[in-house]
Amino acid sequence: MTQNASIIFVDDDPNVLRGLRRRMFSKRPSWHVRFYESAEQALIGLEEQPADVVISDMRMPSMDGAEFLRIVAKRSPQTSRILLSGYADEIAIQNGAAATHHFLTKPCSDNDIIHAAERGLILNGYLRDPLLVDLLSRVPADLMWPSTFRRLHTILQFSGPSSHTELNEFAHDCPALTALAGVLARREDLVPKEAHPDFITLLDILGIETIKALCALWCELGQPSNFDSDQIDIALHRPIVLGQMAANIARLRNLAPEAVDQIRAAALLCHIGEVITANVLPDEHAASRRRADADNCDIISAEVSEMGFAHPAVSACISACWGFPHQITENIAFHHRPESAPTAQSESLLIVYAAQHFARKAGVDGAKRARKYDLASGYITKCGAAADWPVWERTCLEKHVPLERAVHGTITQTAI
């Protein structure tokens, strides 16, 4: 799958490039690799011939790696983008975070670089399935790139006083998104129950990827203008439950806030593909649900039978197009079947999978629904989490907030 790949390396140090050239040709002779000493040269090279993966150093004269990858993201969004940086580049890295799929901290080994590039290539190949490409070509512009999400995404590519002002203006225009983020923060006990923090505070608390994911989700569901936090529509409640459970597990693992942010974002976006297929292929989407019920089979099998692909692939495709990092895209793509992922053992993928499993059990007829899905016991054991699994489940179910809605004068719990 990674044969004949086109890779670009950008570094202003010719000695670094010479070493990379020698080692890459030795370790991956089938790759078509190009080397450039400046971002400007690399942009010209990309115009002449696109690349599957671009790997750039951060610190370069004239144009740094973050700015370079922002331009690449705009001109060639399908290209995987990897930034090499030192610990001292934190502020500059923040500038390029929204345009970068993967960060590697220097010094890093050749194997680190190769693994990052290969993961990008594998995911790119997975996300270029002809059926999925055809589906995406039929997605309306307001779903493919919602203007509100595009506005936030653009703001988050930059930092500094101007962005702070723009974020406040954005929050003023989208108060319901702030309210939605507040619901998630309160459910995770990150803020007091009576608190209503502002948008920038929530951005700091939850993280950039989570806020982007919430914005994308909110846009895809029609940007509801207001809601009662105890009466959220099922379409919003379900991903919030997944995000909350995934974040709770990540904190049990004592993961860094940045890791919690990425894991939560993946969980929030796991089922965005269902929204897309329901809009673009409503008959096939409905038929897959009927088949799952009639055949008592899992939804993935039903979707593949009716459409030729399943919602995790659609969710991953759209998330990749929106510029979410590789790890988030991989976690989304394989959240039902983690053992099939390119990364053999991924703690973050396992956590997203666990959140999906526990959320399913927490819904109406949860035990019955869960029996349709084989537990990925081998993957759980491989990741060293077999002993922790019951603790994760107990914590998630204890903290679960069921959705109650009035149906024909009665109150029922809505299935997840």
What does this structure look like?
The protein is of the alpha/beta class and 416 residues long. The protein folds into two domains: 6-126, Rossmann fold (3-Layer(aba) Sandwich), CATH 3.40.50; 136-413, Orthogonal Bundle (Hypothetical protein af1432), CATH 1.10.3210. Helix content is 60%, strand content 8%. A five-stranded parallel sheet has the order 2-1-3-4-5, with helices on both faces. It has a two-stranded antiparallel ribbon with strand order 6-7. Helix 3 (65-75) runs parallel beside helix 4 (90-96), helix 13 (234-252) runs antiparallel to helix 14 (257-269) and helix 16 (282-294) crosses helix 17.
According to CATH, what is the class of the largest domain? Mainly Alpha
Percent strand: 5-15%
DSSP strand tally: 7
In terms of quaternary structure, what is this?
Answer: single chain
Strands ordered across the widest β-sheet? 2-1-3-4-5
- Number of folding domains? 2
Tell the overall outline: globular
CATH homology group of the largest domain: Hypothetical protein af1432
DSSP helix fraction: 55-70%
Features:
416 residues, alpha/beta, Rossmann fold, Hypothetical protein af1432, 2 domains, 5-stranded parallel sheet, two-stranded antiparallel sheet, 23 helices, globular, disordered C terminus
Could you give a quick summary of the protein structure above?
With 416 residues, the protein is α/β, with parallel strands linked by helices.
Secondary-structure blueprint:
Blueprint: E1 6-10, H1 14-27, E2 32-36, H2 39-48, E3 53-57, H3 65-75, E4 80-85, H4 90-96, E5 102-105, H5 110-126, H6 130-137, H7 141-144, H8 147-156, H9 161-173, H10 175-187, H11 199-206, H12 208-220, H13 234-252, H14 257-269, H15 272-280, H16 282-294, H17 299-307, H18 311-321, H19 326-333, H20 347-362, H21 366-370, H22 377-382, H23 389-399, E6 404-407, E7 410-413
Parallel strand pairs: 1-2, 1-3, 3-4, 4-5
Antiparallel strand pairs: 6-7
Helix pairs in contact: 3-4, 8-9, 8-12, 10-11, 11-12, 12-14, 13-14, 13-20, 13-23, 14-19, 14-20, 15-16, 15-18, 16-17, 18-19, 19-20, 20-23
